[in-house]
Design brief:
By secondary structure, the chain is of the alpha/beta class. 31% of the residues lie in helices and 25% in strands. It has helices at 25-36, 54-57, 72-81, 95-106, 121-133, 156-171, 235-245, 256-259, and strands at 15-20, 40-46, 62-65, 85-88, 112-115, 139-146, 192-194, 197-203, 209-217, 220-228, 250-253. The strands form two sheets. A six-stranded parallel sheet has the order 2-1-3-4-5-11, with helices on both faces. It has a five-stranded mixed sheet with strand order 7-8-6-9-10. The chain is elongated. The chain binds NADPH dihydro-nicotinamide-adenine-dinucleotide phosphate and the ligand O=C(O)C1=N[C@H](C(=O)O)C[C@H](O)C1. NADPH dihydro-nicotinamide-adenine-dinucleotide phosphate is lined by residues 20-21, 23-27, 46-48, 66-69, 71, 89-91, 116-119, 156, 234. It is an enzyme of class 1 (oxidoreductase). Catalyzes the conversion of 4-hydroxy-tetrahydrodipicolinate (HTPA) to tetrahydrodipicolinate. Pathway: Amino-acid biosynthesis; L-lysine biosynthesis via DAP pathway; (S)-tetrahydrodipicolinate from L-aspartate: step 4/4.
Length: 261
Amino acid sequence: MTDSQPTTRSSDEPIRVGVLGARGRMGAEVCRAVDAAEDMDLVAMVDAGDWLFNVPDSGAEVVVDFTHPGVVMDNIRYCVEQGIHVVVGTSGFTDHRMDMIRGWLEHKPDRGVVIAPNFAIGAVLSMKFAEAAARFYESVEIVELHHERKVDAPSGTAARTARMIAEARAAAGLEKYAPDATTDALEGSRGADVDGVRVHSLRLAGLVAHQEVLFGTTGETLTIRHDSLDRSSFMPGVLLAVREVLKRPGLTLGLESMLDI
Ligand SMILES: NC(=O)C1=CN([C@@H]2O[C@H](COP(=O)(O)OP(=O)(O)OC[C@H]3O[C@@H](n4cnc5c(N)ncnc54)[C@H](OP(=O)(O)O)[C@@H]3O)[C@@H](O)[C@H]2O)C=CC1
Ligand SMILES: O=C(O)C1=N[C@H](C(=O)O)C[C@H](O)C1
């Protein structure tokens, strides 16, 4: 799709979708899901080593990116410049990266980018539940568990969950750090510090994507756990984002607003 193409579309036409990272674990699943969706046409499948200009040449209106934190920013920039809406599942997003994308979108005010740390509905719900619980508990830690092929740690979902909890704690006047008497620790044994919240990353063959948020206070604990047992769990959320991004100019973070939660 180029800028010479209209910004409005008939709702009867299938949405023309391109997939970046199409031969990867998630990309291949997205290609199958888009192919099976009656209101979408899969028009481009691009992986490492393929030409990115195949995407605008194919007439794609929306691109779905499941690639790698090291390449995703170049992909988003190119697609936005070409006037293509982008749905991003790739991890590795910081506030700085988000500000860069907002800057690119200023030149394309009718285009949208959706960045979702996790497309599984249960994961989105569990993050909201954790945010709601945060103010009631002085202690909190996150354990994320993933397959052994994952290249980044902590997971994007855990980083986002930690930030949501940190904001809720600050708003409630809780200390940034939960009580912790540790003075003597082997490096790494207390996990990563994400805005004051400890995050522990496990990598194990046989897993897909799992997360526990553990809260504690006097005499009780609360554990919020979500398990993606198969990558099909992410597909309803991906398809929803493809439909919604056409109606949502600018940058949207997370699926929450699309699920009305
Ligand atoms: N938001 C969510 O719900 C989810 C997010 N993810 C995230 O999605 C990302 C991908 O995960 P996963 O599918 O498991 O990873 P994979 O490694 O299986 O897939 C990534 C694919 O992208 C390809 N690739 C690399 N560079 C480019 C490029 N410049 N253009 C096009 N394709 C490229 C890779 O090729 P090559 O192998 O040759 O480098 C590979 O085929 C990760 O960041 C992961 O954390 C995963 C699951 C759910
Ligand atoms: O790499 C994965 O597999 C996943 N990545 C995302 C993340 O980093 O949070 C989403 C999900 O956890 C699966």
